[in-house]
Amino acid sequence: MRKAFISGNMAIAEGAIIAGMKFFAGYPITPASDIMEYLVERLNEVGGVVVQLEDEITSINAVIGASWAGAKSMTATSGPGFSLMVEALGLAVISETPLVVADIMRTGPSTGVPTKTSQSDVLQVRHGAHGDHIIPVLVPWSVQDAFELTVKAFNIAESLRTPVILLSDAVIAHLWESAVLKDPGEIEVVDRKKPMVPPSEYLPYKPDEDLIPPMASFGDGYNVIVESLVHDEHGYYRQDSDTYRRLITRLTSKIMSNVDKVFEVESYYVNDSKYVVVSYGSTARAALAAVRVLRSSGVKIGLLRLKTLWPLKPEALREPCRNADLVFVAENNTGKIVADVERFVKNAEVVSLPLLDLEVPTPDEIVEGVKEWL
Amino acid sequence: MRHEILIVGRGGQGILLLGRILGLAASKYSGLYVTGSEAYASETRGGMSRVDLIIADSPEDIDYIRVRKANIVLFMFPYDLEGYARIMSDDAFIFLNSTYVKEHPYVTRRAFSVPYNEVAEQVVGTSRVSNIVALGHLVARTGVLGDKQVEEALKEIIPEKWLDLNMKALRAGLEIR
Amino acid sequence: MVVGSVYERGAHPLDKYLRVTRLPHIWCPGCGLGIALGGILRAIDRRISEGMLKKENVVFVTGIGCSARTSFYANFDAAHTLHGRAIAFATGAKLAKPELDVIVIGGDGDIAGIGGNHLIHAARRNMDLIVIMITNFVYAMTGGQVAPTTPQGIYTTTTPHGNPEFPLNVIKLVSSLNPNYVARASVTHPPLVEQFMYRALGMKGFRFVEILSTCPEVFGRHVGLRDSVTLYNTLRSKVVVKHNPGVEESEPDWEKGLVAGEFLVRDRPGYLEMLRRR
Amino acid sequence: MGLATLASTELVRASNARFRVNVLISRCKECGICISVCPTKVLVRSDKYNKYGFRYPEPANIAKCIGCRLCEFNCPDFAVFVEVIGK
User: What predicted TM-score, i.e. pTM, was given to this entire model?
Assistant: First the structure.
């Protein structure tokens, strides 16, 4: 355990090292570059490789290759780079490749305002890649959270054989906070499941009962096949509905049946609340302050702070809002998660508080937004 | 305890470094919880630079990341002197680098006007450490952190070959009356 | 006189390196890809039997296209990835586990078209990979569109009045960078494929081998040489094998001939060695 | 001499004193390249079809085989191979 005063991006790098990452490839982009710059010194010390490649496409494909070579692997980028990575994200889904992508959100569309914050990638990280898939997305609101959720992102990636997205933003990236950097043993670190059968009996995509196939690496002598086409348990291309249906059902079920491993939410003052604010990331910092301001003037209001954006767990959103009349969803975008809150929370009116701030949203904005409805 | 510290200056004056030293001294060496955020113009030199630091006993006491009611303010350069009054408490400590801040509206018992650049030049021989002189002054006057803790942070952050210079600057600041 | 089979009954000598249950493969009759794969596998076999290569360390990495399907049939660790991205994938695998011998195989569209930037930078880094580009002068799997290597004037489905573009000489492009090995073979000369691949397997750094190939169904149809044997013999008649040809001789010239040979052989430190030196 | 067809492996083969030429019938796609490249014209297109409807080659003129293996190296389908069976 080490106490430190570090930035959100440094916390991501430290979290990745603790999680056992051995390969990082990336391409410079504001506000994510300092993750790579920090790692290039630190990862070398623990025997890992950091490499800057010719673009984001190369970076994520190299990360997939490295993961199959047996290394826990990661890349970091921001919206424009993430856009270039979504095709490979699909490859990671269908080939069940464990990896972590840190997307440090900045303003868009297109080049936007490169140095300024936003939460407008929320639906892109969910829907960007074509085809059916569920990719877990974790969203930190503090430096400590950035550290811990990075470790968790690796744990989910390795245990469920899936890409995981760590969705931070420009504010959290360059926020400096006290952090406790835990070592393995103080924080859970999970490794991927290896085959227990000899190579002659091994089928690279044959799942165990938990729906996860054990993963052999290149060079282990198991003749693995990484296949981007729809494939059977051998990894052989098949074009029939049965194989397709079985594969896609398993790929989504393995995430949904483990939703409790993935989904996390924090609540503040919701027990007696007639009003609930749902928020995440840097905006949730303003939302908590706003809730405290409103409470001090007698308003019974609470906060639900999402740590996981996908997959959501409907009952975990519904339960804390059971006594609420109004549920506000505060996000630094035009309103994205609000659609799901509306879908799941039926007993209260759901109000979108879309904030479009280049700096971190302020508590005042949220207080004003809530007051309009009181 | 809870402090909201605001530091405003011009790019190149070492404003961000000041924030990191204070943050490290408070978090690692004083066991306090710190949230620090930075804002700066895209150019490396020139343009406004600002650091917000919130220091508290526990993370429970910190929610929003920016200063809303500063009780300690340092102006190393006269950017929006009056505007920032909106986010200061009435009894805030205000430190003004009179090398650049020639006129200002703050005439309170807790406002201190010191030519940090000249002090640095005279005592240490270079105005490049004016930020550390100001740091020493701020720490001595407010008592927000102990001298020892700030020295430890300085030792951790400043490269070996510049450390003596900076320690000298810190002491110069601590001794300003 | 000893009379007896050196092979098991019914077993092709390369069957041990093939996923035989997936044969016959999907390639069209007369397609040169199988010949190219045969040459590659014989070279690997020689290196393995010499003890220079471990079977479990060989990884075939391919992108998308007819050539990319080689990863279906090679009985090694294999990856059939995204269009154009095989070199990127291979780079990560090699860096994460340097003991692997990573072989990228792709078509001219995959390697020099959509994947061209990866080719340039992997060659610039002298990345420790073997990249085999099997050139059939056309996008075959998608039905016969113009490729970066299609000769000027040729009809394709997207150049119905003849290709207006000048083709890319990939040998010259790669040679202008920092590779250790650049060679061109042709499926019409299988021993050359084997020889160059064998050579490449014994080297470090970036090794690039272009293999000219036949696509009777698509390219052959476009140029009026639909018959496998006619196309094969036509290509063979155009190939001029030279000993250590100069890079300037690599320009594909359908009148004067397509020069095959080893254009560049060097022993510069590979990327991995440079990384370790830091 | 003479052609031996083994149903179990779908193999047709023939040998002379030194070489045996084998054709894996079901792998053949009738491209004709092996027949074309053989310098001594050992291989002849069969009038029978394999299960995919291709007429495979048969080593009908095995006596002329010189063991150059051009048929094996040039077969795109891993369908033809030559064994050395004597000196």
Answer: 0.96
